[in-house]
Write a structure and sequence with these properties.
The complex is a heterodimer.
Chain A (H helix, E strand, L loop, with lengths): L3 E4 L2 E5 L4 E7 L3 E9 L5 E6 L3 E5 L2 E6 L4 E6 L8 E9 L7 E2 L3 E6 L1
Parallel strand pairs in A: 2-11
Antiparallel strand pairs in A: 1-3, 3-8, 4-5, 4-9, 6-7, 7-8, 9-10, 9-11
Chain B lengths: L3 E4 L2 E4 L5 E7 L5 E7 L5 E9 L2 E4 L6 E3 L9 E3 L8 E8 L8 E2 L3 E5 L1
Parallel strand pairs in B: 2-11
Antiparallel strand pairs in B: 1-3, 3-8, 4-5, 4-9, 5-6, 7-8, 9-10, 9-11
Classes of the chains: A mainly beta, B mainly beta.
Chain lengths: 110, 113
């Protein structure tokens, strides 16, 4: 099955810094989503981005489907950005089965 | 819209007990699924349903049963709880499979002693 690898596994930032999180996947996909799991455990949808670029406030994401990777950019980080960021994909002919990466744990210090 | 709702939020069971985790959505989504999340890991698919009356197994189905009698509800049953089922359980839904964004409920934290 599809393998999803996220890097880095952990990241510590000072408030105001920028960061880039990466998601590599091993096969073609027709769905790619980024989620933020906050310290209370909730999974928040950030982007649905099987290809192309999207922006939402301080966050943006780019997926290059032909090269099988996606990037999540966080600019001017805030303490509320802390938590775990997950990338998840659905392969072609795999129904709706989301395959999750292991996540990047982000800690933003004041 | 309430989105995807799950009850209970927390549950403690003794080994061998049974229980049902409830999941409901009010978005008229056809596709619903259950995941479990264990410490330090991503989420793994337990069971899923592409519509009322249709269910199938995911990656880790052993020890769990599901049914889908309505579009709105997708309960997950633990027939005889085991400590290995201690986990956080998430329900998700989407309009369909493949190219649709999936939305997750708030989760149920289950401890089996």
């Amino acid at each position: 099955g599809i393998q999803v690898e996220q890097s880095p596994p952990d990241l510590i930032l000072q408030e105001g810094a920028n960061s880039t999180l990466r998601c590599n996947f091993s096969d073609s996909v027709n769905n790619l989503q980024w989620f933020h799991q906050n310290p209370w455990g909730q999974l928040i949808n950030l982007f649905y981005i099987p290809s192309g670029t999207k922006q939402n406030g301080r966050l943006s994401a780019t997926t290059v489907a032909t090269e099988r990777y996606s990037l999540l950019y966080i600019s001017s980080s805030q303490t509320t950005d802390s938590g775990v960021y997950f990338c998840a994909v659905v392969g072609y002919n795999q129904g709706g089965k989301l395959i999750f990466g292991q996540g990047t744990e982000l800690s933003v210090k004041p | 819209n309430a989105g995807v709702t799950q009850t209970p939020k927390f549950q403690v069971l003794k080994t061998g007990q049974s229980m049902t985790l409830q999941c409901a959505q009010d978005m008229n989504h056809e596709y619903m699924s259950w995941y479990r999340q264990d410490p330090g890991m991503g989420l793994r698919l337990i069971h899923y349903s592409v519509g009322a009356g249709i269910t199938d197994q995911g990656e880790v189905p052993n020890g769990y049963n599901v049914s889908r009698s309505t579009t709105e509800d997708f309960p997950l049953r633990l027939l005889s709880a085991a400590p290995s089922q201690t986990s956080v359980y998430f329900c998700a839904s989407s309009y369909g499979t493949g190219t649709y964004e999936q939305y997750f409920g708030p989760g149920t934290r289950l401890t089996v002693t």
